[in-house]
Every structure is written in structure tokens, then in C-alpha cells.
Design goal:
By secondary structure, the protein is of the alpha/beta class. The protein is about 60% helix and about 5% strand. The protein contains 58 helices and 21 strands. It starts with 10 loop residues before the first helix and ends in a 15-residue tail after the last strand.
Length: about 1500
């Protein structure tokens, strides 16, 4: 677990900064904030508003407290921060608004539907009356039509006659019109001939300009002939009223005085001609002038340009006049013809009007007839429409009439729910915000024990549903059914998880070790094009960018406890509005945000610890599979195999039920939507009514089908329930496998792999037609199959633990184990205050800890009076206690307890009195309840492992010190004829490893990547390579082997995908000897030139190696320091043996012994006492007697000897005959030597099982907090305060003697311990009560007290292995010794082991003696005198040195009568020594010589 370094490590940072402490928000601040944010929200009454504001901080504080209990009991973290508090308020307000709007819309739809149905019902009687009225109107309209028929025929005949007459007149008029048009065409042609003259006149007129005319006018006398032209102009322009027109030059000048008028008169002259306004006499009077020779344009141009223009105009106008005069008769005729034509047209128009009037009269009659017909048809149509509407109304009411009542009821219900929305939504929002991380039990506690009691309290006045359930707000049956089809388990927790994922405001982060959520999300979002990414992919950001832009869902898988910082904008939803665009800045890019985007995150970690920052940016959802959910899934697997027809029908029904529920909802929505959208009367839209009726009929059919399906499903479920015992057994086995990851991080098992094991068990277990018999066979086979498969990947120390867990869980499920007694077996009993404890009646053979267990056991109901039985049956209990195998049923318990105790109760007594036999008692318990095979784990068979494996799954060796599987793999590959490649991982080796894997995939080789734990940074890439193996289609022979020491950060994905195998050195002399000879080749065995010596000494060397390796099991009785002797030590020693025997004629004992014991093996030994032991072994096994004596005995036991000379196989056969269980005598140890290792082994097993137990009140009779609080109170009352050193030693403090210095130093050390204890206990009690934060240090103290251990922070003064109760009593005794010494002076007898630093005390004694005798301290040594007196009999301290008590012999006994060492009694691990005088003497006077054992202290 990574934690930031404490600030104390950086003092400069503290000195140079101002520390601002951000403490948790107090409740008053939370209430104030909630009131501020909810001030504008409509929450009903003032009391309701106050209740909601009060609930917000209440929920926050409750969840915080529950999170602490969650950590204590389940060891899972959940964080609450002010941000999560604010988000709850925001979520509540938004959900409330949404639900109110949705409820209002639903009520409106139902009201509309009810109104439409009511209107339709009222229309039925109206339609019947309208139908009767329409039938009468039809008869009337029909009579009117019949009366109009003869009149219409008469008028049609008259109109036809008038039309014929009008046609004749029209023909005559057309002839006259044609003649007029011909005449007009002739006139128009003649006029066209005069057009050039007009154009010439116009041109002449245009040629005139005012300047020239002005010049002409200004002449006093015009040139000759010009006056004729002007005279002609004057004559032409005259109006004919004067007979004699003045044509003089003066008259001309007068005419031309206004040139504009003059020229306008000329231009308008043609129009006067056309209008007949020019008298003919004008033209007659100018004829003479025209006949004059000089009256032409050319002549005039020579005299005057203006005169020439006027001449040309006169000539052109005269020409036009002449032509016009010639066609005048024709024009008169045309005018007469036009007048005749006008009369004809008038006659034609009159005839036409007469015809039209006749036609109009006829049409009017016809239209009246047709109108009467239309009226009749309309009335008929209206009648038919009434009939149809009546029929539709009757059909609609028949189909939807019942819905009206249901809708009205729904309106009432929704209205009530609308009033209750505040409470229901508040509960649901709190559930969404806080419940996701918790498991089922804690969610139920959060809702049932915290939220609901507060919300439904009598003082709250907060309306909410009676059976309030967050799921009723967050989801519905149709959606749940849909989720079930999408692989979401149907248990309550999974449905809650689905509701949280689909409704949460923050992105969901799903804790998904079994990948249930993964499968569900993939299938749920499949149609939406879900994108799958991992943080290991190099392009995951590009995928996210595209998904955000296009609104696609994204599932990010396999995240660990930290998120990539680049995801922060997504997790925080840091969306910025720029113009009309919603922008999310992802790295250095701006991505347009599509609100259809959805982001899901999953992790395979079973118990991740996410930081508060991550927790507040996401919604943690615990998808860890639960017992009930997994049981249901496995039940489906069983039925699918055993009764496939049932499971197929069940699955089809599930799909059908889900589809039916969804269809019903859709159809009701369709009906209500159509009713709402319909305008006017429903009966006006026949298609709508038919659609509504069809929808209703379909809905009824679906409901009927749904009822049948649900009844059938219940029948199938009842049949499936017969197989539930199998599913239950398989479920508890999986959760035991899952718990093993807490024992060792390499013990990872995926649900998919376990399901495969279960399917294999279904296929291979014994069949039977009897259901109960079949279930029995299946359970037995699967339980053992799981045991065998799992043991392959477990270390030896955990195999028995796993078997016992299997046995205990099965018996607990069968209600065959008393939980209280089982917990006592695991934890034992501890006594803190012995004042109430009865005295030990068997103190001479029953130690203090055992008596503590017995007195606490006596408090259990079934063990009442067992403590008193030790007084009444002391001899029988001692006999039972001293028996070699008291756990066997052959050894009877004393008195009534033999017949009274169950098997579990027997092993509880063994646990109390003989902790060295716990392992054997547990083994016997397993054998009696599950069978012998559960105590015999299978040996690792690599050949079988290869057969069971596939090329796409790695094979993983979990290494132990001193074991390397490379040689075994090489030999196996050689046997199979497969190329084998190996590489030891380390810095820079990843490219070579990838190359070997690529070559192995293509060529079908075996590849070993050794020591993966040395290259953890590359293993994520290796995991990606393994995930890609199926897509690369490796050859069938390919296998990827991995080896690694256990490491907590080894990728879980690799462990779950692979087959795990543990490699450990063989345990026991027989196994070690057999392995050494099995690994030896015939060539090596026969290579020495002196085979007789070599074979005997080789056996001695093998024995020497096996004894050294297996001696570790005796703990500190074996070696003071454990050593990892391995095969390389043996191989080098064997080579030296062969070479030296060949080199020397005589056996070079000294050289061989030195090389083997001092160099090859001794090079690892660092302790002098251990080196002495090794040399003793070497001298015992390597000597002349070993060569000369037949069957030379290597121990006191006759089975262990050097066999007769023979082949390599004969030695292997001899090793196979060695005892399977090694007695301590084989190592030269006392029979008691096994006891310490057996106690340690049993204690470790029980402690491991305790660590796997849930810390629940149900499991222990009281909650963990209550238990720890009680222990803390007891310790607080028990532990005294620190010493007041100055007041106690006031007269000696300033000038202390060496012994007083020791006393002061000891008191100071104990003061530190006492202060630490009291501070820890005070803070811990406050943390349990919620007054202070439970820090990581306090959490460690909490866990230690709960498990009966001494917290590590209390062991700073002196080490101790004692449990908490014994340690606390020991501490009080130590304090008492120092207190007595300080108050009463130096004690007569010192308790040496009561000092934290005994060496300092002994040095002080030396100094005191040296000063007293005035000698150098360097010349002094210790002499030890055993004093056979009781402490009460010693009246004064010795003159030299000190009397010392509290020393214990381990591995030996003491004979008080003879004052010498002796063999210990059976079951006597340690022996209390008498008082010993530690006497400083001069070194030359020290006792020595024979009979004195230099015992290490």
C-alpha cells in the first residue's frame, strides 16, 4: 500500500510553511450547507424541508461510520468527502425534478386516456339518437329528389331548342364579319402604299431646324420661288374658313414667329388629315403652285435649305392626301358594313342570351336535383358514420373499458406517490451516492438500520412509501428482465448494482474480480457499438476521443488502484461551453462532447484501495459475486448438464417473460400516447380505434402468455431446486478459493476457470438415476477435484489449511458445527485479569496458557464445569495430556467428557491442552468428516499438467528458496522431443523474451521465462502478450512457462489465466534422500575410481545434506539462524568427494570435512553455535567407522544406516523404505524437539484461518468494535501510568551507581512503552466512538487487539511472542520489579528476563564488583552457582554478584537433587531453572574443565 511520506521526514518543509489543517466538516456546517443548497427547492411543508436538510448530514456521517466498520470487518475501504456530500444534494434535486416531471406526465397521460374513454362512453347514446334522426331525413330528401325529375327534363328540351337557334344566327353573323374583314384588309393595303410619302414628309420635317427656319424668317425678301413654297404651307395649314388666304411673305414670317408651334403644326398635320380635319379646298388651292417648274426639292435646296425641307414636306403630304382620297369610297363602304355587322352581332348576342338563360334554368333545376341527391347521400353517409362510430365506440369500450378503472386507480396511486416523492427520491439518491461500494449485508444495514429509521421517524413528518425501496424509483420490472437477458445475475445485489450503474451521476467504477459486470456491460451496450480499452493500450486516448465525439459507450477494463492522469477531465466531466459547442479538453486537444457518451470502468482487483480523489470522481460499485448470485449461476450450470431440457425451457421462459413485460409496457405507452395525441373525438379516427383495439388485444394475449410463462417458470424452478445442494457446495468452494488470495497474493482463481472445473466434475462424476444419489456423487467428486486441482498451486503449509477450511465450511453449511465453539477453537481464550480466575489445580504439569484456555472454555455452554474437572480428575487429565496421540478416539477423555464431547469439542480440548497436536487433530477431523484423500495432496506431475494445459494459457511455477524447476522442464521437453528455450528475466531481457515467445508460437517450442519477480515493470506487457495468444493461433505444442517468487504485484490477469504450480524442497529425510538419488545419473554414480568408499560416503553426504535441510523444521532447536542449503551445495560437495577419493590413496578426512562443512555448506553459516553443530554432524557421518562398519548407523534409530553396496537403483530402493514420518531421534534430537515446530505450525494455521474470518457480530457473538473496546478498557484499567523517576530516586538520581543507572534506564524505556500504550488505547477508544479519525496506526492496533496479538508499536522496548493477555501480565510483573526496586532498594533476587537490556544489568554487576575489589573489569569473568533454595528462603543478597531468577532451559531438564543437566520429561519443552548466582570472578579463578556445559544465554 503506497502512502505519502509523513511531513516529519521533511522538517524544512514544516519550518518554512504555514500549515492549514482541513478538518472534517462538523455536522453544523453540513446542515448549513444543505439548507443553503435546498433553500429554493420545493420540498412541501416546512417540516419536510427541515427533515430533508437534516437527513443530508445524517446520511453523510452514517456512511462515514459504516465505512469504518466496513474496513474493520471486511477490510475494504470506502471514502466519503465533502464533494460526495454536495453531489448527493445535487443528485437529489435533479432526481426529484425528473421524477416529478415524469410523474406529472404519466398522470396527464392517464387522465387524458380516462377522459377519452369517458367521452366515448357518453357518445354512445348521442350516436343512437343521431342515427334515428338521420334515417327520417333520408326519406324526406328522397321525396324532394323525385319531385324535381319531370321539371328538369322539360327545361333541358327548351334549352336545346334555344341553343340551335343561336347557332344559326351565329353562322350568318360570321359571314358578314368575314366580308368586313376582307374590305378592311384592302384599305389597309392601299394605306401602306402611302406610307413612303408620309415617311418622306417626316424626314423632311426632321431635316428642318430652328436656325435655318430662323434665317429664312429673317429674310426681308425671300429668294424667288421660296415664297411659293411658303404660300403652299400657308394654304395647307388653313382651316378653310377664309376664301382668300394671305400668302404674303409677311404672313409667312408671322406664321413662323413661334418656330416651336410652327413645327408642331407641321408634325400634327397628318393626324388632321386622318381625322378629316383638313378641307379639300386647301389642296385644290395649292395645285397651281405645285405645277411650277421650280417647285421641287432640288431647286429649293439651292436657294434655302429650310425652303427645300418645307418643299419636300408639302410634296409628301400632297401625295399622301391623293392616296387617301382615292380609298375614301372604300372606307365609306367599310363603315356601312361594320354597322350591318354590329346589328348582326347584336342579334347573335340576343339569341345566345336566350339560349344561355334556357340553359341556366335547366342547370339550376339539375343542380337543385343534384343538391337534393347530395343531401340525401350526405344524410345516408352520416347515418352510416353513426353506425360505424357506434360500433367503434362499443368495441373500444369493450376493449379499453376495464383500463379506465385501472387508469383511474393508477392516477390515484401516482398522485399519492407524487406526494411521497420527496422521501422516496431522497432515499434513492442517498442509496445511489453511498451504497455502491458496500456488500449486501452493509447495504441492508445502511438502508434498514440507518436511513429508513431516520426518514420514517415520527418527528420527521416526511411522506414516503410504506415499503420504501430504492429500486422502485431507480428501475422497473421490464428493465430488470432486460438486464437478466444481458447476463446480469438476478440476485438482489446484482439488480441494485445495475440500478446504480445506469442511474449514477458519476461514471461507474465497478469492482469486478469475476468479470460479471464486464460481460453485462458488453452485452447491454453491444448494439450501441461499445468500445473496449485498457490503460495498457497505447492508443486508448484516441479511442476515447472518438467515442466522446460520436457519443459511443466505452468500457475501460483491468484498471488498477491508480488512474492515468489524462482521464481526469473525463472523470470530472470538465465540460466547457464555447459558443454553441460543448468542449472537453483531453490532453492538448479540444474534443466536442456528445452527451450520448457513456464511460464504464472495471477492475479485476478483488479488494482495491482507491484514493478519496478517485472515489469522489467515480461511483464505486461492488460487483464481487455473492454466495446467492453464484449459487444461482452454478445451479443453472448443473441443470444445463443434468436436465438440459429444463434449462433450455427455463432460459426461453426468462427471455419470453422479459420480452412480455417489456411488450406490455410498450403497448400501454403506445395506447396512452395515441390517446393523448388524438385530437377531437376518438370515433372520428377509425384507424386509431382499430390500432388501440389491436394493441389492447395484443396486451391481453401477452399478459395471458406471461401468466402461463410465470406459472411454468415456477414449476421449472421447483424441479431445478432439487439440484441446489450441488450449486451450494460449489458456491462455498469457490469462495474458499477466493479467500486464499488473502493468504498469498499468488493464489488467484478466476470464476471462469472454476466454472470449467465444475463442468468437468459434472461430466466425470458417477451417474445415477436417483437424484439424491447423483447429488452425493457429484458433491464428493467436485469437492475432491477442487482440492486436487487447487493443491497443485498451494504451498505445503497451506494444503492442510485449505482442506480444513473446506471441511469446516461444508459442516457449517450443514449446521453440524457450533459457530461459537468453532471460533473458540480458532482463537482460544485469553485472561487479562486473573483476580477472578480460579487457581490452577495442576500447576505441576499444566502451564499457565493452557489453564487460561480451560477457564475461558468453561464459559461456553457445552463446556460448563470442565475447569472443575481438573481438580476431580487431575490424574486422568495428566495421563491424557502426556499421551503421544491424545487426539485419537482410542484415547479416552477423563470422566464424563468422553461421552459428552463431539468431535469438534474434542479437538478444542486438544487445542487448549496440547497445541502441538493441533495439526494432527485437524487432520483426524478432516479424515473423519471428508475422508483420507483430503489429507493426501497429489504430487506434482508435469506430464499431466502439460496434458491438461492449452497453448494459450501460461504455466506458472511459484518458487520457493532453493528450488529451480528448469532441469525438470528440460528433461520433460527432451522426453517429448520438444525444443526448450529458457531465459532469466532481468534488466534489458524483455526484447529477448519477446523474441523467444514469437519463435515458440510459430515453431511450437517451449519457452521458460524464469524469475519474473525480478522484472515486475515488464509483466504488464507480458500480460498483454498472453491476452493476444488466442488471436495469434500458436501451434499445439507451444507452451509458455513462467517462474516467479511470490510477489503482491504480480499481475492478477496472468495468475487467473494460467495453471499455477508451487515448487518447494521436499520435506522429510525420505523425500530428500529419494530426490537426491533420483536426480543422480548412472554415469555420475559410477565415475569414481574407488566405488566402495565413494558409494558409502556418497550416502553419508546425502544424509548430511538431508539432515541439514530438514532440520529447519525444529525452528530455533534446529538452527539459531535459518539457512537456505540447496542442491548446488550438494553438487559441489559430491564433486569434491569424487575428486579427492580418486586423488588420494588414503581417505583425506580432514580435507573433505573442511571443504564440505566449513566451505561448501559452512560458507552459508554465520552463527558459531550452528557451525559447531554442523561439524558435529560431519564428524559423525564422515569417519573410518562409516567405511569399515557394515550398515553403519547414522542415528540412534536402526532404520537409518548406510545400505549394502549395490547399484544406483538399489540405493533408490533403500531410500524408498525409509520411514515416511521422521522422528526427532533421526536428527539426534530429543523426542520433545518436534513439539515446538508442531505448536508453531498449528498456531500459524489457526492464525491464518482467523485472518480469513469475517469480523461480524454474527460470527463472534459481539461486534469487533465492542470486543476491542472492552479489551481496551480492560488494558487501560490494568496498565499503570509511567514512573515518576525523580521522585522515586530523588536521593540517588544525581550520583547514581551502575545498578541505579540500569534502573533509571530501564524505567525510562518502560515509561516510553507505558506512554505509548495509554496514548494508543485512549486514541483507539475515541476512534471507535467516532470522536477522532481512525488512522492507519490505530487500525494496526485495532487489528492486533481483535486477534489477541500485541501491537508492534508496543514492542519497542523488548521483543515478545506471547499473546496479548499473557504479555500484559508479564508487563505488569516487569513494572512491579522496577517499582519495588525503586521503593525498597535492591532486591535480593533479580528477575533477569524482566529487563529490557539484560546485558546492561550484567555489565553493571561487573562494574560494581570491579570497583568494590579494586580490579580491572577486563580481568573478570562470570561464574554461575545454582542455588537450590526458594526465593522466600533467601534472606539477603550475595556478597558478590547477584541472585538471578527467571531463566529457562530449552531442550534439556535439570535435576535438582544432583544439580546437573538431564534429559527433559515428555512434553516438557522448557524447564524453569533454580535461582542462579551470577558471580564475577577473576578469569583465572573461573571453574572449567569437564562436566561443565557452556550453555548459550
Amino acid at each position: 500500500e503506497q502512502r505519502p511520506p509523513p511531513p516529519r521526514r521533511f522538517p524544512a518543509l514544516i519550518n518554512c510553511a504555514v500549515i492549514d489543517w482541513f478538518m472534517p466538516w462538523p455536522e453544523e456546517a453540513l446542515v448549513s450547507v444543505s439548507k443553503s443548497f435546498l433553500a429554493e427547492v420545493d420540498l412541501g411543508t416546512a417540516q419536510q424541508h427541515a427533515s430533508v436538510c437534516a437527513f443530508m448530514p445524517f446520511a453523510f456521517i452514517e456512511v462515514d461510520a459504516l465505512s469504518k466498520r466496513y474496513l474493520e470487518q471486511e477490510r475494504r475501504y470506502n471514502w466519503t468527502t465533502p464533494k460526495s456530500f454536495l453531489e448527493l444534494i445535487s443528485l437529489f434535486t435533479s432526481m426529484l425534478a425528473q421524477r416529478r416531471a415524469r410523474g406529472d406526465a404519466q398522470i396527464l397521460r392517464y387522465q387524458t386516456g380516462v377522459h377519452k374513454l369517458a367521452t366515448t362512453a357518453e357518445s354512445v347514446s348521442v350516436l343512437e339518437q343521431q342515427l334515428q334522426s338521420k334515417q327520417q331525413q333520408v326519406e324526406e330528401k328522397r321525396a324532394q329528389c323525385d319531385a324535381l325529375v319531370p321539371r328538369m327534363a322539360e327545361q333541358k328540351d327548351r334549352a336545346a331548342e334555344e341553343s340551335r337557334a343561336a347557332a344559326r344566327v351565329a353562322d350568318e353573323t360570321a359571314g358578314k364579319e368575314a366580308a368586313v374583314l376582307t374590305m378592311k384588309a384592302k384599305i389597309d393595303a392601299d394605306l401602306e402604299a402611302a406610307e413612303p410619302a408620309l415617311q418622306q414628309a417626316a424626314a423632311a420635317l426632321d431635316s428642318l431646324n430652328k436656325k435655318e427656319l430662323s434665317e429664312l424668317r429673317g429674310l426681308g425678301k425671300p429668294p424667288s420661288g421660296v415664297d411659293d413654297v411658303t404660300a403652299a404651307v400657308l394654304l395647307m395649314l388653313g382651316d378653310g374658313t377664309k376664301k382668300n388666304v394671305d400668302t404674303s411673305w409677311k404672313a409667312t414670317q408671322a406664321l413662323m414667329r413661334d418656330l416651336n408651334t410652327f413645327m408642331a403644326d407641321l408634325a400634327a398635320f397628318r393626324a388632321r388629315i386622318d381625322e378629316g380635319d383638313v378641307p379639300k379646298s386647301n389642296f385644290c388651292s395649292i395645285r397651281p403652285l405645285l405645277e411650277k417648274e421650280h417647285f421641287n426639292v432640288d431647286a429649293m435646296r439651292l436657294k434655302s435649305v429650310a425652303a427645300a425641307g418645307l418643299c419636300e414636306w408639302v410634296l409628301s403630304i400632297v401625295e399622301y392626301w391623293d392616296i387617301n382620297e382615292s380609298i375614301e369610297p372604300m372606307r365609306a363602304g367599310a363603315r356601312q358594313a361594320e354597322m350591318d355587322l354590329s346589328d348582326a352581332i347584336d342579334a347573335k348576342n340576343g339569341a345566345t342570351r336566350s339560349a344561355e338563360m334556357a340553359e341556366a334554368a335547366s342547370n339550376e333545376t339539375t343542380e337543385a336535383y343534384e343538391a337534393a341527391l347530395l343531401d340525401k347521400d350526405a344524410v345516408v353517409a352520416e347515418g352510416e358514420l353513426c353506425v360505424r362510430k357506434l360500433a367503434l365506440a362499443q368495441r373500444l369500450m369493450a376493449s379499453l373499458g376495464s383500463e379506465g378503472d385501472r387508469w383511474r386507480s393508477a392516477i390515484v396511486t401516482l398522485s399519492i406517490d407524487h406526494d411521497r416523492l420527496v422521501g422516496d427520491v431522497l432515499l434513492s439518491a442517498a442509496f445511489l451516492s453511498y451504497a455502491g461500494c458496500f456488500n449486501r449485508r452493509f447495504r441492508a444495514a445502511l438502508i434498514g438500520d440507518s436511513f429508513l429509521p431516520f426518514l420514517q421517524g415520527p418527528k420527521r413528518d416526511l411522506q414516503m412509501s410504506e415499503a420504501a425501496d430504492p429500486l422502485s424509483i431507480l428501475t422497473d420490472e421490464a428493465q430488470v428482465a432486460s438486464w437478466s437477458n444481458e447476463n446480469l445475475p438476478a440476485d438482489r445485489v446484482s439488480i441494485e448494482n445495475g440500478a446504480i450503474v445506469t442511474n449514477c451521476a458519476r461514471w461507474p467504477l465497478m469492482i469486478d474480480p469475476q468479470e460479471q459486470a464486464n460481460k453485462w456491460v458488453k452485452k447491454m451496450e453491444k448494439d450501441n457499438g461499445i468500445k473496449l480499452v485498457t490503460l495498457k493500450q497505447s492508443d486508448f486516448l484516441r479511442t476515447l476521443e472518438n467515442a466522446i465525439s460520436f457519443g459511443a459507450p466505452v468500457l475501460m477494463q483491468e484498471i488498477l488502484e491508480e488512474l492515468d492522469p489524462s482521464l481526469d477531465p473525463i472523470m470530472s466531466k470538465a465540460i466547457v461551453k464555447i459558443g454553441n459547442r460543448n468542449i472537453l479538453r483531453l490532453g492538448d486537444k479540444e474534443v466536442e462532447y456528445n452527451f450520448d457518451f457513456r464511460f464504464y470502468l472495471t477492475t479485476k482487483l478483488g479488494n482495491p484501495h482507491y484514493t478519496p480523489e478517485i472515489s469522489t470522481k467515480s461511483t464505486l460499485v461492488n460487483f464481487s459475486v455473492k454466495e446467492q448470485g453464484l449459487e444461482d449461476q452454478l445451479l443453472g450450470a448443473v441443470v444445463r448438464k443434468e436436465r438440459p431440457e429444463l434449462e433450455v425451457e427455463k432460459n426461453n421462459l426468462v427471455i419470453a417473460v422479459a420480452a412480455g413485460k417489456r411488450k406490455i409496457v410498450e403497448l400501454e405507452d403506445l395506447i396512452l400516447r395515441m390517446l393523448t395525441q388524438a385530437s377531437g373525438s376518438l370515433l372520428d379516427d377509425e384507424d386509431l380505434v382499430l390500432t388501440l383495439q389491436s394493441s389492447k388485444n395484443t396486451s391481453e394475449e401477452v399478459k395471458a402468455s406471461l401468466d402461463i410463462s410465470e406459472r411454468t417458470e415456477k414449476e421449472i424452478d421447483k424441479a431445478r431446486e432439487g439440484y441446489r445442494p450441488c450449486a451450494y457446495r460449489a458456491s462455498i468452494l469457490y469462495f474458499m478459493l477466493n479467500d486464499l488470495s488473502r493468504v498469498d497474493p499468488m493464489y488467484q482463481f478466476s470464476l471462469d476457470a472454476y466454472t470449467s472445473l465444475f463442468n468437468i466434475s459434472l461430466d466425470k462424476s458417477t451417474r445415477s438415476d436417483e437424484l439424491q444419489e447423483r447429488i452425493k456423487h457429484l458433491n464428493e467428486y467436485h469437492t475432491h477435484f477442487v482440492y486436487r486441482s487447487t493443491c497443485r498451486g498451494l504451498f505445503e503449509a497451506h494444503k492442510l489449511l485449505f482442506a480444513f477450511q473446506v471441511c469446516a465450511k461444508i459442516m457449517q453449511g450443514a449446521k453440524k458445527i457450533n459457530v461459537e465453539e468453532y471460533n473458540f477453537f480458532l482463537r482460544g481464550g485469553q485472561v487479562f485479569d486473573k483476580s477472578q480466575q480460579p487457581p490452577n489445580p495442576c500447576a505441576d504439569w499444566l502451564n499457565e496458557q493452557a489453564w487460561d484456555h480451560i477457564t475461558e472454555l468453561d464459559k461456553l455452554y457445552n463446556f460448563r464445569n470442565i475447569a472443575s474437572s481438573f481438580s476431580s480428575n487431575a490424574r486422568e487429565w495428566k495421563s491424557w495430556h502426556r499421551h503421544n496421540e491424545p487426539e485419537t478416539s482410542a484415547v479416552r477423555l477423563p470422566g464424563e467428557w468422553e461421552n459428552k464431547c463431539t468431535e469438534l469439542q474434542r479437538i478444542i480440548i486438544v487445542r487448549c491442552l496440547r497445541p502441538d497436536r493441533i495439526v494432527f487433530a485437524v487432520t483426524s477431523f478432516i479424515v473423519n468428516n471428508l475422508g483420507q484423500k483430503f489429507t493426501e495432496p497429489p504430487q506434482l506431475d508435469l506430464t499431466q499438467v502439460v496434458v491438461e494445459s492449452v497453448p494459450t494459457s501460461p504455466l506458472i511455477f511459484v518458487l520457493s528458496p532453493g528450488v529451480d524447476p528448469t532441469n525438470q522442464l528440460m528433461q520433460l521437453a527432451e522426453q517429448k522431443g520438444i525444443t526448450f528455450s529458457a531465459i532469466a528475466l532481468g534488466q534489458g531481457q524483455s526484447p529477448h523474451a519477446i523474441r523467444l515467445i514469437d519463435e515458440g508460437i510459430t515453431s511450437g517450442h517451449w519457452v521458460l521465462l524464469a524469475n519474473c519477480h525480478l522484472m515486475m515493470s515488464w509483466l504488464n506487457e507480458l500480460e498483454k502478450i498472453i491476452e493476444q495468444l488466442p488471436g495469434r493461433s500458436p501451434r499445439p505444442q507451444f507452451r509458455l512457462w513462467l517462474s516467479s517468487a511470490p510477489h503482491p504485484k504480480f499481475p492478477i490477469g496472468i495468475l487467473q489465466k494460467g495453471i499455477k504450480m508451487t515448487t518447494e524442497p521436499p520435506k522429510g529425510l525420505k523425500a530428500n534422500m529419494s530426490r537426491l538419488y533420483a536426480n543422480m545419473s548412472d554415469a555420475k554414480f559410477q565415475r569414481c575410481g574407488k566405488p566402495a568408499k565413494y558409494k558409502k560416503l556418497l550416502f553419508s553426504l546425502c544424509w548430511f545434506h538431508s539432515v541439514l535441510v530438514d532440520r529447519r523444521k525444529f525452528l530455533n532447536l534446529g538452527w539459531n539462524i535459518p539457512y537456505d542449503f540447496n542442491d548446488s551445495d550438494f553438487d559441489v560437495s559430491e564433486l569434491c568427494l569424487s575428486l579427492y577419493l580418486d586423488e588420494y590413496e588414503l581417505t583425506p578426512w580432514d580435507a573433505l570435512k573442511y571443504l564440505v562443512s566449513e566451505i561448501n555448506y559452512g560458507g552459508r553459516v554465520t552463527d558459531d553455535w550452528d557451525r559447531r553443530l554442523m561439524n558435529v554432524y560431519m564428524n559423525s557421518f564422515f569417519n573410518d567407522e562409516a567405511l569399515a562398519t557394515p550398515n553403519f548407523r547414522l542415528s540412534s534409530l536402526p532404520q537409518y544406516c548406510i545400505p549394502d553396496d549395490g547399484s544406483l537403483q538399489s540405493y533408490r530402493d533403500f531410500c524408498a523404505t525409509l520411514p515416511g514420518v521422521d522422528r526427532p531421534e533421526a536428527f539426534g534430537q530429543h523426542p520433545n524437539a518436534d513439539i515446538a515446530s508442531q505448536i508453531s505450525e498449528g498456531s500459524e494455521m489457526l492464525q491464518t484461518i482467523v485472518s480469513l474470518q469475517p469480523r461480524t457480530a454474527e460470527a463472534e457473538g459481539a461486534g469487533p468494535e465492542a470486543r476491542v473496546l472492552t479489551i481496551a478498557d480492560d488494558l487501560s484499567a490494568l496498565v499503570p501510568g509511567p514512573f515518576a523517576i525523580r521522585s522515586l530516586l530523588a536521593d540517588q538520581f544525581d550520583e547514581p551507581t551502575p545498578l541505579v543507572t540500569v534502573l533509571v534506564q530501564e524505567m525510562q524505556r518502560y515509561n516510553a512503552v507505558l506512554t505509548k500504550i495509554r496514548t494508543s488505547l485512549d486514541d483507539l477508544k475515541k476512534a471507535i466512538k467516532g470522536l477522532v479519525v481512525m488512522s492507519s496506526e490505530l487500525e494496526v492496533v485495532f487489528n492486533a487487539l481483535l486477534e489477541g496479538r500485541v501491537p508492534a508499536s508496543w514492542l519497542t522496548a523488548y521483543p515478545s511472542l506471547k499473546p496479548l493477555a499473557a504479555w500484559s501480565r508479564d508487563l505488569l510483573a516487569r513494572i512491579l520489579q522496577l517499582q519495588t526496586w525503586a521503593e525498597q532498594g535492591q532486591p535480593k533476587v533479580y528477575w533477569l528476563t524482566g529487563f529490557t537490556y539484560p546485558t546492561g544489568f550484567l555489565t553493571a554487576l561487573m562494574q560494581t564488583s570491579a570497583r568494590k575489589n579494586n580490579v580491572s573489569i577486563d580481568t573478570l569473568a562470570w561464574d554461575f552457582l545454582v542455588i537450590n533454595l526458594e526465593e522466600k528462603d533467601i534472606l539477603q543478597p550475595p556478597k558478590e554478584g547477584a541472585y538471578v531468577k527467571g531463566l529457562w532451559l530449552e531442550g534439556a531438564g535439570w535435576n535438582d537433587e544432583q544439580s546437573c543437566l538431564t534429559e527433559p520429561e515428555p512434553m516438557e519443552l522448557i524447564y524453569s531453572m533454580p535461582i542462579i548466582q551470577f558471580k564475577p570472578v577473576e578469569a583465572r579463578a573461573r571453574r572449567g574443565g569437564g562436566g561443565v556445559y557452556q550453555c548459550p544465554l
